Amino acid sequence: VELLDLTTGVGVEDDLPDFAGLGFSSLYPNPASQSVSIGVYSQSSSAGPVEITVFDVLGRKVADLEARHGTDEIRWNLTDLGGQSVPPGLYVVRLNQGSLTASRPLTVLR
């Protein structure tokens, strides 16, 4: 089980500046109830796809998604790794590409 250490500050709106090359172009709607659109931008084509990981408030991995490098938008249907609907609460959406990361909070309502 992969855990996210929330004491490090990951989970607050800590997008990297545009010059860093990785970030969110959108996270909408937020709060979400049925699905959420995750817009990603990446300036590095050599680093491969952007890994998108969603963690719950306890730091447990809830979902794994992937976006292409460049500008991409994917839709997450608010289901966990087992295909079940995630419960209402606070989640952290984290982008990772090579050594670059960015994260944003997401609230799920039911």
- Radius of gyration equals 13 Å
> What is the averaged pLDDT score?
85
Q: Any low-confidence stretches, pLDDT <50, length ≥5? A: 7-19
H/E element string?
A: EEEEEEE
Strand order of the largest sheet: 4-3-6-7
Helix content class: under 10%
Structural class label = mainly beta
Strand percentage lies at over 45%
What separation lies between the terminal Cα atoms? Answer: 26 Å
Largest sheet: 4 strands, antiparallel
**What overall form do the CA principal axes indicate?**
globular
- Count of helical regions: 0
Number of strands: 7
Walk me through what this model shows.
By secondary structure, the protein is mainly beta. The chain has no helices and seven strands. A four-stranded antiparallel beta sheet has the order 4-3-6-7, with no helix packed on it. A three-stranded antiparallel beta sheet has the order 1-2-5, with no helix packed on it. It starts with 21 loop residues before the first strand and ends with a strand.
